[in-house]
Amino acid sequence: QVQLVESGGGWVQSGGSLRLSCAASEIFFSNYNMAWYRQAPGLEREWVARIYRNSATIYADSVKGRFTISRDNAKKTLYLQMDRLKPEDTAIYYCAIEGTGSWGQGTQVTVSS
Question: pLDDT per residue over 79-107, tens digit each?
Answer without folding.
Answer: 999 999 999 999 999 999 998 889 999 99
